[in-house]
């Protein structure tokens, strides 16, 4: 999987907040949503980094990446996490808690 395939932050709760002009589900701006498919890996990583400081959707958990320490939202318990768009890590991977999108992408490339 190429590095530019960082998953979309979309969680399927696509409603625009008129006050902030951002999506209530993923907290991306309209420009970020529109540009996502054209962004390179560093561009996608910048969006994810900005989103790490945003509130997490209901049912999600605020986590710190076990790889780099970056904050991010994890929706695995809610069944709507961005990581569900990616293949699972091989069983041989040491047991770790959640990884941020960039570190999970890197771990999948190493596997």
TrEMBL record:
One Pfam family name is Cys_rich_CWC
Kindly give the PANTHER family that the UniProt entry links to this protein. DUF1289 DOMAIN-CONTAINING PROTEIN
**Under which name does UniProt file this protein?**
DUF1289 domain-containing protein
Native source species = Chitiniphilus purpureus
